[in-house]
Structure to design on (125 residues):
């Protein structure tokens, strides 16, 4: 039997993921970003084991990371038959991902303030 070690999220990592969640990031996306930020690369199976996400949750979250072009995906052929294993790396620095959420929240805030100002203008006329 083959022995392997998989990194798992610690309390600080979970706090990071929860902070992302407080910004409105989906739970599985927040956990996936956190996990990939802490490893050089990981297969889907390693992500599942290390992050405590189920396979469908990893797939759904990975779609979001792909859409934002935050992740690299490569296939590694395994010995014998079967599908190649997919290995993922975060291609965008975590600082840039945080910046993305910062800009998103700033835009939301600006829109909210515009709406409030419009309400004020409407009641004063």
């Amino acid at each position: 039997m083959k022995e392997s070690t998989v990194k798992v999220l610690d309390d600080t990592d979970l706090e990071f993921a929860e902070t992302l969640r407080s910004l409105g990031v989906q739970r599985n996306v927040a956990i996936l970003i956190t996990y990939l930020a802490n490893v050089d690369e990981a297969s889907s199976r390693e992500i599942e084991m290390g992050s405590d996400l189920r396979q469908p949750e990893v797939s759904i979250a990975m779609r979001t990371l792909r859409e934002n072009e935050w992740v690299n995906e490569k296939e590694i052929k395994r010995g014998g038959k079967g599908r190649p294993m997919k290995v993922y790396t975060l291609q965008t620095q975590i600082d840039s991902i945080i910046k993305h959420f910062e800009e998103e929240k700033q835009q939301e805030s600006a829109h909210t303030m515009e709406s409030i100002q419009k309400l004020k203008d409407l009641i004063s006329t």
